[in-house]
Amino acid sequence: MDFAEAQKEALGCKRCGLCNSRTRVVFGEGPLNAGLFVVGEAPGFNEDRDGKPFGGASGMLLDRLLLRSVGLAREEAYLTTLVKCKPPEGRSPKPAEINACRPYLLAQLDAIDPKVVVAMGDLASRALTGRKESASRIRGRAIPLDGRYVFPTLSLQRALYTPADRALLVSDFSRLPELLAAERPTTYETLNVPRVAGLAEAEREPLQPGLW
Ligand code: SF4
């Protein structure tokens, strides 16, 4: 599925039950040549209302992080979420919902081909790295996958309410300019997750210790 097909299909998608809890599909936004690709968990109330990713207080925090730590305006990064529809009652998306929505995320990654993918929070970190550890255990490390760096970090939501976590997020984002300026990783490693079925069970290779 190419990007245009994915976008068109997603707007009317009923692949999973989240079609019943959404007002609007929040596909994602940003330039198709973005070097930085940011993936959150799921749309929330504000995103569902506006049809745009990373709204409300979380979006304002992300905007500040991008501008102050990376030197990028929001419009210069591609922003999206693991699932494109708001789960009910503020819950996290279930594995089956993440898997149902995965083809859209893969189409976005294929089309944009970013150098750095920031995976925000545990679910995004696990889905994009295939690793089982929490984001707090592997945060701030650059994991080479498919010729890109996947960079797990904490969720914006967590950072909003915990100053210590916010400081960690600022620290992680401050590493992104160096990563964006680096050559793409030469290590070839596929995502090692099925495109539509469940997440990989096997542990991945150890992290690249010398990157940071
Ligand atoms: S979350 Fe994704 S797979 Fe589920 S209905 Fe929405 S667009 Fe389709």
TrEMBL record:
Q: Provide the alphabetized UniProt keywords.
A: 4Fe-4S, DNA damage, DNA repair, Hydrolase, Iron, Iron-sulfur, Metal-binding
Q: What class of enzyme is it?
A: hydrolase
Matching Pfam families, A to Z?
UDG (PF03167)
Catalysed reaction(s)? Hydrolyzes single-stranded DNA or mismatched double-stranded DNA and polynucleotides, releasing free uracil
Example of a GO MF term: 4 iron, 4 sulfur cluster binding
Q: Which GO terms describe its biological process?
A: DNA repair
The record places domain Uracil-DNA glycosylase-like at 27-180
E.C. code:
3.2.2.27
Provide the family line.
Belongs to the uracil-DNA glycosylase (UDG) superfamily. Type 4 (UDGa) family.
This protein is called Type-4 uracil-DNA glycosylase
